[in-house]
Structures are given as structure tokens and as C-alpha cells.
Amino acid sequence: MVRLKVSIRDRNATALSLLVWLLFFGVCGCVAKPSDILSSSPQSVPRYRLAVRLLPDAHRLEASGTLQLAAVNFPRNSIDLSLSELMSGLRVDVVSPAVSAGETKLDKTERPYSRPGWGTTTWTISPRQPFPPNESILLHFSYAGEGERAGFIFDLGSEVSFAGGIGTAWYPEVEEVTGDNDGRLRGQRGTGMLEFLVPTDYLVHASGTAHSLPSEISQGTFRFEINDPTFFSFGAAKYTVQRRGGTIPTALYLLRPRKDAADFLDGAARVLGALTKEFGGYPHAEFAIIEVPTKQAGRAGFDGASVDGFIFANSDFLDKGFNTAYFGHEISHQWWGSLITSKALEGRWMLSEGMAQFGSLRAVESLEGEAAAERYRRTGYPGYISDQCALGYFALLARGLDHPLFNLPLEGNQSRTLSDSKGFIVWDMLSRTVGRTVFSHNLQNFIIAHKYQRVSWQEFLEAVEGDAGKNLKWFADQWLEQTGAPDYQLTWKQNGKILRGTVSQPAPYFRAALEIEVQGSARTVDKLIEITGDHVSFDWNVPFRVNSVTLDPHYQVLRWTPEFHAHFLHPNLK
Q1: Where are the beta strands (DSSP E) in 136-239?
Q2: Which CATH superfamily is domain 1-238 in?
Q3: Domain extents for the chain?
Q4: Is domain 340-480 in CATH 3.40.600.10, yes or no?
Q5: Comparing C-alpha atoms, which of 232, 178, 312 is closest to residue 51?
Q6: What does the pLDDT look like over 415-455, one tens digit per residue?
Q7: From the centroid of its chain, how far is CA 223?
Q8: Rounded CA gap, 516 and 525, in Å?
Q9: What distance in Å separates the CA atoms of residue 17 and residue 99, rounded to the nearest whole number?
Q10: CA 454 remoteness from chain centre
Q11: Strands lying side by side in the sheet with 535-541
Q12: Does the predicted TM-score (pTM) go above 0.70?
């Protein structure tokens, strides 16, 4: 295990370095020359140069920098920026164009959230003169954040400070109108440079590619360059680091040494390998796992959280040893919910949580076999979240908390559980319906075509249907826009070599292709039937004495089973 050691050098030199750093990036609110701050070349996405000073013991950050926006062919009277309600003291000055230069007027609109600290403020930035058309805009800003309240994937803790820009706008994110039917504005991804100044015994991992020299790290300075559109994120603490090379280099940032650290690096590499086969090329140069204390992670709303290029994992899951389902889910978010995001409420949970859980299932099946995947679908994966399986879905159904998957409510654990229990099995059934290879190729093509974009639910469904060459409206109608699940009943009788049976179901009727396993003392035969209405009968020649006939023996179709009925009728029975 490698522990990076840093030392405090001459105090006068350190103080001088800090003074230069503060003046250059303008923490005091000063405006530097454009040539000293950022190239003026237009960018298709917002481009930042952001300097952050972290004071963990004070639960505080101080930040300043520049924001460059590409030219557009119309004048602009204002620009809207999102910033978390946990940030304060925002100041924005226009550096260029010259006609608009100077201090701006700031008007704020609060966008509260039901959980304190998770809300966002929209700051409308109005220059002295409107921004003219066909000229890029360069803004200089400064602000601070302090206090012991957490946001979603954000907390300035004395042990760990971390932030995920996709969860909390901890830096000014340029807002865009996306045509959402829920009336929300969305922050845009950005590129640029991040620089962090931290206590000299701290390490920082952040979005982008690290460019810090050893001499800079020894002074507590960490620099990162971001060239792909990203929501900026970071983790900072007194970390111990272990690394693994390979096709996708992987790092593990731990708060204390662990004897099984190599297992996490090797396990993550195997999961990444399985998921790249399912979803396509990994979208970042490296991958990292960042430990966060369990209590602190819970305060920030997660057990595990995925951001561009790395994940935050709580200490409890690391203490349990490598868990394929947990890391399969979080790593899948590198594609779904991170690289691909939804532009509206419809499909938002299914294109993020549901698809990440499907990736988790595919990783388990690829690495541990079909029996492990079947258990995962039925009753969950050992050591993982217990309600993320069919049993968890039927628990919600039994409590009257079902809801169509295509438009799950934006907030609440109910939506998360539905997408992570019913949702991932629905994606698995769709994969089987169109064919594993076809579905995987479809997902990969969709990601290539829409990466870094917000997509609509309809775009995704049309892409799946187009690649499959099948009309899948029936599937979407019954599994995505309808609640519930089928309750198939099988009856059978053998007369000589003839096996006769019926599969029936109550309304509403679910269409499905169901495997039937016919087992004798020395032979087993698998048959396939398709049910579309209230019942379907079969009449088969079976040249051996039948001992049992089992419907859907590997639980490939989400459905009630006698065991599930017994569980909810007699919940104390195991």
C-alpha cells in the first residue's frame, strides 16, 4: 500500500505562495486581466478556471475564477447561474466584452428543496450594458461556502470534504431550459481547469486529469484539467492511496489502510470489463473509488454516489469487502445518469437508477454466473440493499405504493426503490425480448449518439424499437406505463406419454414468453410457451414419467410466485 507523504516547508515561502495564489485567482474579488486568466477562444460548453481553497476544520471553502461562454448570434440581457443555497457572497464581474465590462447586478430566485441545504438559488446576472451578439463572454466570480449542513453529494466535513456537481451546484453552473414538463432549469456541464489548495496532509481527487507536480502537492496544491463536458466533483481528506494499472487505471482512496484493498481494485477492474462489453467504452481516462464515512455519506443522501470518473463509497460497504452488485450499480452510473441524462421527468429514474441496476445485474451474471443473477432478481444480492429485487417490489405493491415506471415522481425513496427493484428486471426482460446482443449494441449506439446530452424518454424507446426491428409498444404499455405484475398459475396432468397443462392469469393480462421445465427421474426438458390472454394450454409428447413441471424456473419474468404470496400472507415465515 502506498501512502503519499507531504511535509510543511518554510512558513514564509508557504505564506508567499498562498498570497500569490489568492491574488491571481481573485479570492478577494479583484479582477485579473483576461490574458492572465483564460484563453478567449470560444467553447461550445461553458469553460471555467476555478480555484478552491478548502478549510476542512472550519467547514469552509473559498472559491473564485472565471467562466467563459461561447458567442451566440443574438444579444443577451442576462445570464442565469445556479448555485447551492449553501454558498454565499457571490460576486460576478464582466471581464469581456468591453462594452459590458464591470460589476453586474445580481437577482436571485430561490428554488427550495424539501431537505434543508439541498435547495438551489438561480442568480440572474445582468451587465451594465447587454452582451452583444457574436462575442464570447468572460465572467470573473468569487463566493464562499461554510457551515455544517450537507447537500446532495456535498459536505464540507473535518474528516472528508467532497462535492458532486451533478447533485449540488457547489460552483456557478450555467442554467439551460430543457423543455422539462416539471418546470425545472438544469445546470450545464463544463470544461476547464480546477485548482485546490488544502492542508498539506490532505490529498485531493477531482474531475479531469491531474497535473500537479510533486512540489505543488507538497504545498497542498492540486490541479486538474477537464477537457470533456463534466459536472465538476472532488473529494479531499487525509487519504491513503493504492493504484492498479491496466486498460482502465484504477485508484482507491481510503481513510485507513485495509488488508483487502487489492480486492477492490481487482473487483472494480472486473466490473469495468463486464460493463464495457454491455455499454461500450469507458468514458474516462481512469476510475477511482473515494471513501466517505458512512454517517457523512448518509447526511449527503447516499450509500454510494457516482460522478464523472469516480465514485464515493461509504465506509460500511468497504468494510464488508468487495460487493459486485454494489460496485456494478455505481460504476454503471458512469454511463447512465452521468454520461446520459434525461431532459424530462418521463424516464428519468429508469434511464439512471433502473439502467444502473440493470448494469449491476449484468455484471453479477457475467462474473458470478446465472444462478447468482437469478437470486439477485428474486430476493436480492447478499450484502447489498435488501429491497432491490422482486421481493422488494412486491413489498411496495402490497403497501399500495406502486407507480408506472415511465413517470416516477421526482423525489422520494419510493421512486428509487421501484426503479431499482421492478425497473432493473424490466430492462432485463427487454434485453431478452430483443436479444442480448441486439440490446447491448443498441445501448452502445445510443450512448455514442447522445453522450453528454439530455435525452427524452421517447428518443430512447424509439431507438430500442428501431434497432430491434420489432414493434415493442406492447412491452412499453404493460411494463412501463402500467402498474402491477402477472400472477401466472400452472396446472398439468400426464396421461401416458402426453403431458397436458394450462397457464392462466387474472386480468390485467400480461404478455410473456415463459419457459417451462419438465423434469423426470433421469431427464429434464425445457419448453417455451407464449401467453397473451387469460390462459394458454399445451399438449406435449413427453417419453418419460414426469415428476414435476415448473413455470419460469429461473425467474426471468417478473411475477408473483407462491413463495411471494406466502411471504406477504404470513410475513413472519421464512
Answers
A1: 137-146, 154-156, 160-164, 173-176, 186-187, 190-197, 203-206, 209-210, 221-230, 233-237
A2: tricorn interacting facor f3 domain (2.60.40.1730)
A3: 1-238, 340-480, 489-557
A4: no
A5: 232
A6: 999 999 999 999 999 999 999 999 999 999 999 999 999 99
A7: 25
A8: 8
A9: 35
A10: 14
A11: 489-495, 498-504, 535-541
A12: yes
